[in-house]
């Protein structure tokens, strides 16, 4: 049986082409695109039968040729602090995580762009998992649709929305999946679709310098930089992409980022690693490094994971570090760890399937040993 095409993730042009190919008359195709766009992204329709203002024969045609299926939910966890994490699957070995972080004034969804990652940042759990592949636009958007389904957050244009912000800070490096991320975020920021403004969408990069101007010019979202060190010798170790694009090149790309201003500051993420990057000299160097850039600095207490090679800085040291940055005039909130109890905090995401498959092999081996034992 021929596989049905997902309509999720197609832009309007591709959606129209798909309808025409399925036999929809050209004279009505543009209207059908608008109707489907509204049902899929404003109302969160999960099937064609619910599209009650469409003729039955058109709905039957859609059902035969297309699907609105979300990624499969493998696990859905809720932290004691209200953070939610979903492990999703779209095919054998294609598993990725997304995290929802509720706060009093916003609800942020942390979205993955790849299955695994190539960057091998030493403090990041995802970096211990090899890259499987890039996520497609439907898989990126599917994370948002699943979160909105679970939170009963439809229609997307209603006041009091629960998902108010998107951060491309999940598994993977978004700028190594530029075209698919750009396509997905185009729908996220479309006023007739998921309708989040550019200032509420943040793309985080570890420093793929050549792609940063393109991100500003073609996507136009807010920018976050996973900086984590102020010296190349340290950053070379903890963020190895620094060997290719050192700090000076990265900072120049930030200074010229399209649209950066005091109203749209670049966020610098800085994970606090005990005895590695947390000295007061590092704090003073950080202030000098970002001078002249409209900047905000997020200090992130290191979130441990099994086998992690680092410890979190002492809280007293984090406070002294933050004080130096604050005195220099930069907002430097210390990010409160969220979802640690379900491994949903910053740097902790990893497809649990890796661990589960190892456990299954061990259980199978033990079962085989038991079967061979004399009774």
Order of helices and strands: EHHHEEEEEEEHEHEHEHHEHEHH
Give the structural class. alpha/beta
The averaged pLDDT comes out at: 88
User: Could you say what the CATH topology of the largest domain is called?
Assistant: TIM Barrel
Over all CA atoms, what is the radius of gyration? 23 Å
The CATH class designation of the largest domain is Alpha Beta
CATH homologous superfamily of the largest domain, by name? Aldolase class I
Query: What ranges have pLDDT less than 50 throughout 5 or more consecutive residues?
Result: 355-375
How many distinct folded domains? 2
Number of strands: 13
Main sheet summary = 9 strands, mixed
Q: What's the helix count?
A: 11
Gross morphology is elongated
Euclidean distance between termini CA atoms: 48 Å
- Report the portion of residues in β strands: 15-25%
CATH architecture of the largest domain: Alpha-Beta Barrel
């Amino acid at each position: 049986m021929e596989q049905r095409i997902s309509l999720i993730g197609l832009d309007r042009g591709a959606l129209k082409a798909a309808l025409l190919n399925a036999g929809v008359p050209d004279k009505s195709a543009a209207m059908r695109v608008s109707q489907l766009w509204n049902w899929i992204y404003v109302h969160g329709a999960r099937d064609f039968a619910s599209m009650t203002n469409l003729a039955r024969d058109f709905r039957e045609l859609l059902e035969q040729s297309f699907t609105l299926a979300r990624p499969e939910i493998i696990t859905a966890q809720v932290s004691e602090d209200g953070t939610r994490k979903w492990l999703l699957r779209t095919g054998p070995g294609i598993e990725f995580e997304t995290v929802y972080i509720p706060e009093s004034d916003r609800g942020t969804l942390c979205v993955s762009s790849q299955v695994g990652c190539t960057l091998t940042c030493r403090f990041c759990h995802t970096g211990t998992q090899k890259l499987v592949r890039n996520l497609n636009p439907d898989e990126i958007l599917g994370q948002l649709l699943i979160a909105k389904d679970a939170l009963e957050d439809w229609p997307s244009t209603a006041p009091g929305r629960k998902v108010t912000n998107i951060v491309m800070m999940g598994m993977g490096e978004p700028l190594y999946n530029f075209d698919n991320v750009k396509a997905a975020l185009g729908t996220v920021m479309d006023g007739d679709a998921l309708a989040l403004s550019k200032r509420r969408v943040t793309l985080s990069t570890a420093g793929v310098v050549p792609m940063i101007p393109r991100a500003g010019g073609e996507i136009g979202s807010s920018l976050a930089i996973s900086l984590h060190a102020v010296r190349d010798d340290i950053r070379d170790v903890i963020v190895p992409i620094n060997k290719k694009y050192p700090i000076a090149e990265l900072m120049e790309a930030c200074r010229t980022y399209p649209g950066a201003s005091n109203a749209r500051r670049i966020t610098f993420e800085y994970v606090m690693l005990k005895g590695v990057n947390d000295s007061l000299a590092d704090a003073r160097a950080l202030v000098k490094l970002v001078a002249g850039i409209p900047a905000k600095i997020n200090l992130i207490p290191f979130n441990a994971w099994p086998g992690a090679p680092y410890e979190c800085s002492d809280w007293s040291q984090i406070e002294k570090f933050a004080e130096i940055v604050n005195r220099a005039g930069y907002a430097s909130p210390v990010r409160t760890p969220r979802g640690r109890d379900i491994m949903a905090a910053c740097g902790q995401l990893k497809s649990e399937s890796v661990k589960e498959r190892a456990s299954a092999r061990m259980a199978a081996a033990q079962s085989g040993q038991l079967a061979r034992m004399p009774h």
